[in-house]
Design brief:
Shape: globular
Distance between the termini: 27 Å
Helix content: 25-40%
Order of helices and strands: EHHHEEEEEHHHHEEEEE
Number of helices: 7
Number of domains: 2
CATH topology of the largest domain: Ribosomal Protein L22, Chain A
Number of strands: 11
Radius of gyration: 18 Å
Strand order of the largest sheet: 1-5-4-3-2
CATH superfamily of the largest domain: 4'-phosphopantetheinyl transferase domain
Bound molecules: coenzyme A
CATH architecture of the largest domain: Alpha-Beta Complex
């Protein structure tokens, strides 16, 4: 009897660098808040111990869910992204005012299960969204691993501190997909992790974006220059922060 086919989860990761000046004071900007967040989301933000953090956690959740859905609809064009079309539900605050570490984001009739992270010094917040198959409730235990880091730490760890060292480690199609140092570094980090999880040589892998407008299409893992159904990644970069999420079929993480 053959094994059942492995169904790859659709997921997205997003990180927000809270040192980025664009994150300062925006939760007091009524026009911004009304454009991005629904009334229920705004109430939850206002009720949080730290409304600024809660606003950016919700922002990250929406972007992560957009990427999960972008992967899901591939190879069709991704839906146009509008923060307001993605609703964060069930990610309120506990009795002590601290933010919940899990939640749900809804878009049309799709739902993503979201897990949040932030660093103890509150320099960044991040979210992983996994599209839930509501019939089977698949999504919560998806086998997706995610890492939040920064450019300095990752470039030292991977031995790619300057542009030349980094570019020398990437494949030709990755070099053209990576529109800056952070784009290139997060690809190398994700590729290294996928290779470890698959037990293969990272040099056989490349992370290339699906065809379409630059920066607006999902990253696709290639093995020996062919799209690889056994692995998926999602990438994020903001300021000095980077995050990547990986999934490989049948390999425990
Ligand atoms: C996808 C998007 C939401 C993420 O943008 P971001 O938070 O600024 O940037 P991040 O670094 O977190 O994410 C970018 C990565 O997401 C991935 N990505 C892009 N489009 C994707 C899609 N449709 N599906 C899945 N992943 C996608 C890519 O890997 C990209 O990195 P890369 O270009 O190096 O490959 C954004 O590119 C986008 O499409 N924005 C729509 C326009 C918009 O938001 N305007 C502003 C309104 S306020």
């Amino acid at each position: 009897m053959s094994a059942p086919p492995v169904v790859a989860p659709a997921f997205g990761v997003d990180i927000v660098d809270l040192a980025n000046p664009r994150t300062l004071g925006r939760h007091h900007d009524r026009r911004f808040m009304e454009r991005v967040f629904a009334p229920g989301e705004r109430s939850s933000i206002e009720a949080a111990r730290d409304p600024r953090i809660q606003a950016w956690r919700f922002w990250a959740a929406k972007e992560a869910a957009f990427k999960a859905i972008g992967i899901h609809v591939h190879p069709d064009p991704p839906p146009p992204f509008e923060h307001a079309a993605f609703r964060v539900v069930a990610a309120g605050v506990g009795a002590d005012g601290d933010a919940a570490d899990r939640g749900t984001v809804r878009w049309q009739d799709a739902a993503c299960s979201v897990s949040f992270r932030e660093d103890p010094e509150r320099r960044w917040v991040g979210a992983l969204a996994v599209l839930v198959d509501e019939a089977s409730d698949r999504g919560a235990e998806s086998g997706v691993a995610w890492t939040a880091s920064d450019i300095e730490e990752t470039s030292v760890r991977l031995g790619a501190r300057d542009r030349d060292a980094l570019v020398g480690r990437l494949g030709p199609r990755e070099v053209s997909a990576a529109r800056g140092f952070a784009h290139a570094l997060v690809r190398l980090a994700a590729r290294t992790e996928v290779a470890r999880r698959m037990g293969t040589d990272p040099g056989r892998l490349e992370i290339v974006n699906a065809p379409g407008p630059a920066g607006r299409t999902p990253p696709i893992v290639h093995l020996d220059e062919e799209p690889c159904a056994e692995a998926r990644v999602s990438l994020s970069h903001d300021g000095v922060r980077i995050a990547w999420a990986t999934w490989t079929s049948g390999t425990p993480h």
